[in-house]
Amino acid sequence: MNAPNQVPAGIDVDGVTAWFAAHVGDLAGPLRFELIAGGHSNLTFFVHDDAAGNSWVLRRPPTGQVLATAHDMSREHKIMGALAGSDVPVPTMVGFCDDVEVNGAPFYVMDVVEGNVVRNHVLAMELSPEARHHSGKSLAEVMAKMHAVDVDEVGLGDLAKREGYIERQLRRWLRQFHDSKTAELPAIDEVHEILAANIPEQQGVGIVHGDYRLDNCIVDDDGNIAAVLDWELCTLGDVMADVGTLMVYWAEPTDDVMALEGLATVAEGFATRDEVVQWYAAASGRDVSNLDYYIAFAYWRLACILEGVYSRYVAGVMGDKVPDELSEYRPRIESLTNEALRLAQGFSA
After folding, report:
1. How many Cβ atoms from other residues are within 10 Å of residue 265's Cβ?
2. Chain centroid, CA 229 distance in Å
3. Which CATH class is domain 121-348?
4. DSSP 214
5. What's the CATH code, domain 13-111?
6. pTM score, two decimals?
7. How far apart are CA 330 and CA 321, in angstroms?
8. How far is Cα of residue 281 from the mean position of the Cα atoms in its chain?
């Protein structure tokens, strides 16, 4: 969070204020900007008009070096705008700006959704045990609603190719791993071979969020999902991939392998993975018998992603700031890969 009266990096006050005046309406006072979340992912800010008591959320790409095809603001804005009025809770879109002269990069603005972003187990303890448990049920049921959306009906039928999602993902992440690897890890190729040889039949076509997990949602005080956020990886394809991703991030206290440190769901009161899966199966009517495949795929994909992040830090292209947990990247990548291999060997036997 930025200090009082300090403008955070990524905001051109004059340009953004002029855009708000033109697209939101009369402003009662100077705008105040507060960084909510940042780093090398998309930057998210509160925009406050304190004199009028109004607030919005602005989202833009990171200010440093980014991949040419990443951080597509128009894509996120399009998806959430298309889902407005559906059964999937999303923030209301206010507007999109593609004129980089305004703020140095495209950005979009949305209304504030009241609630909690439960980023870690410390914040999870601010919810009651009942709310923590219910959040798993709500998360599963909202995911089922998202996967039931008719993509043509909401105008997202042209978002991406519909078939062959897993095949494309396997090719993409294996290539990116080998393009960026900092060390040899033969298990990555071994897992890839097993996954490529055992791809389940895709159960129809639906919206794949790509990073569906508790901390990418806003949760109200009762544990209901008030909004689903962070749609930058969204595409069309095999929706069971979202279930696998959720299972990787839905940590249990006894887990030997954690996707990240401090995950919220290790706190007392959260539902088990099995409960979340059964809630999803009941709400969606989908066959979850091949779920181990998608969990293995999610562990493997995350290992490939983290290798890319780690390699960019090592190469110095992520800036001078080195995260405290950098030394943990290599053992975490290896443990994620080994967990993927353990699961893969189980369903390929």
Report:
1. 26
2. 7
3. alpha beta
4. G
5. 3.30.200.20
6. 0.92
7. 18
8. 22
